[in-house]
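Human: I hope this is not a bother. Would you mind checking the protein record under this note? Thank you for your patience.
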Amino acid sequence: MALCVCPLPRRAERTFPSRPLASSARRVGAGVVLIATLILATFVPCAGRAAGTDLPAPSRAFVATNCLDCHTGEDADGGLDLTALGTDLRDEALFARWVRIFDRVNDGEMPPADYGVLDAEEIRPFVEHTGDWLRQAQRLEHAGKGRVQGRRLTNHQLERTLQDLLSIDIPLASQMPEEPRHAGFEHLADYQSISHFHLEDHLGVVDTALDEAFRRVVAGDESWKRHYTAKDIARKNPKKRNRDPEMRNGKAVVWNSGLIFYGRISSTRAGESGWYRVTLKASAVKKPKGHGVWCSVRSGPCVAAAPLLSWVGSFEARDEPQQWTFETWMSKGDMLEIRPADRTLKRARFRSGQVGVGEGEPQDVPGVAMHEMTIQRIHRGGSAEDVVQSLFGQLPMKVDRKSGKKSGKIRFAGDAGDPKTRQALVRQLAFFAQWAFRRPVRKQHLEPYVSLLESKLDEGQDPIDALRASYRAVLCSPRFLYFIEPVGKLDDWAIASRLSYFLGNSMPDRELFALARKGKLRDPNVLHAQVERLLQTRRGKDFVRDFAGQWLDLVDIDATEPDRKLYRNFDIIVQHAMLSETRAYLQYLLDQDESVDQLIDSKYTFLNSRLARYYGIDGIRGDAVRRVELPADSHRGGLLAQGAILKVTANGNDTSPVLRGVWVSERLLGKPIPPPPAGIPAVEPDIRGATTIRELLEKHKSDPSCAGCHVNIDPPGYALENFDAAGRWRNRYIQVKRGRPRPAAKVDASYTLPDGRPFNGFNEFRRLIARDEKTVAKNVAEKLLVYATGAPISFADRPVIDRIVDETAGRNDGFRSLLHAVVASPTFLTK
């Protein structure tokens, strides 16, 4: 909005109120009042300007009185020149700036304390009128084009949708380019991208899925099962030094060692890619005092050319043999690797990178003895008959199977030239398309695929091949790849999809389809019942894992590897136990509808014996993760004290109060932190230990442009300093001297909250934060709504969030209650 020379209202001719100022340069005089009066014209509407585009008069008056003396001209504080700031809220960047101004005034951050504290009555007119102005502008925009823009299936959603549509189980997401993430979430419409490269990869995924479905029809229900004795598990040639288990006293033994791929079992090499169920019976050898031998189970080629291994699971071997069952995907040529993986155990040393029979035993190291094992091929997507129904329905067809091999053939049993046959093929195509598009298909939308089918038939192509080509086209349609949501209130089909992808990241099932067809999904009672039902389905049981993976950045758990010199007790078993702790904790809160303030502070957590030992908690036995009541003086309990959270908020070698402070503010307290100003260098920890991170940050935030954000960043950042980069408690920092870690300065985790309340350490901090239940509940509601709808929380959404929290306050702000309230909200049910 350009500077306007319209006449000024008389109300602008007033002096600034007398307040103590930071310096004489800020003193209010007649000259400043005159300048402020003149530049108020920036906010005065000109004749003919569209109604509703200008800052309301009460807000203009507030700005003139309280803001313009500091935010005027090229040298304006924080680079914010309000005299040059437009008011056309159709500009997204400009809208965001006005929201930022609103928030800082509403939160009491502006005007700054040295200007003088304003009372609530002075702030109220600005907050009310500016809030209405911003909400009205955004609601008008949403009414025209919707709150959520065009949104496509993510890689993860595409994989599950194809699996459920075709009744297959083959992994597909890894064939697609990595999804961009914003604020942790990978499916926000405004940040999704698509290119011809993406479409090419999409076509490849579709072909892979169809190949697998048609292969399953021909191959049938492959039944493969093999029982392995200890001799089958062990190496074939006892005299040859290699890395397979060795036979010792009738058992296949692997000693504890750092040797790569030691413990691989060559006899388990997969002949075909697929899902396998592994049942293992094992015991410990030379078990250490006080606990068993923790072992990892992984899979992969186990060769130097392909060093990465996939996680299958872990177990704690003890003196008495026990049995464990795991399910894992294995690509053709992969084998299992089973070995001790606890870094606290003594390790054997082997020369020349290979192991000879008996070399580990005299070194007096622990090991694992495998008694027997069974591996069975399974199909998690459905039976071969399920695949046939997904592809062909009631079409007349025969399958010539030749010992379950790919050389079999699917034959259409009808007459391809018969008009009734063509009608049956078109009906099947329409049936497939409605499931792929997740709603009934209109004739004009189906016509291109029918034309393709008929042209293939006219060319003399086999009906099965013609149908497959039509399916391929359907699965490349925008109606499959994108969510079809009408602007305004969602229809029942869009509600079914939004609910299904929210809770299961896949297409609606038959019950949701039936309810959508009857028009019942706007009934609050029906919605409530469907949420409860879907959470119990196979896909719904992964809701917590999927949601937490993005919200809490758990998908980044592998992004860093703690320095082995600094964190010697950390290992892959600990890392996966940390993930299990956080997932089990959240699942418990959801199942029991526990108050979300327990995300911050609680008297319990979920541990197995390995993680408990890592945390320094005694008396926990067994490899199953289960609820554990914590001692009164424990530092654990709540997400902030869980190893998975502490690891993903560190860089692997050290901690940063800035990184952790921003993470806690944004992910748990719902306080967005804007990017740092240009030209402000990042603060890196001094690994020599000569300067503490607190000393570095105090210098850093002395810059006025940094101080406004650090008031929210620093309290949680400092409070977490007692936890190191690998999630363990520390009282002192570690510095490296002559290549060895040494204790350094004492950790100081005390600070002051933005509202002035001091805290002396982590325990006091989390107790203070947990008291503000509404803040935590609002944040959880926001994150659930973002995850459910694929759009960030807008300014116009804020009243909806407040209503959700008010509705659930009577139910103790329970996690499950919040989820139900989100689904019932008008924002969830509207595009």
The chain is about 40% helix and 15% strand.
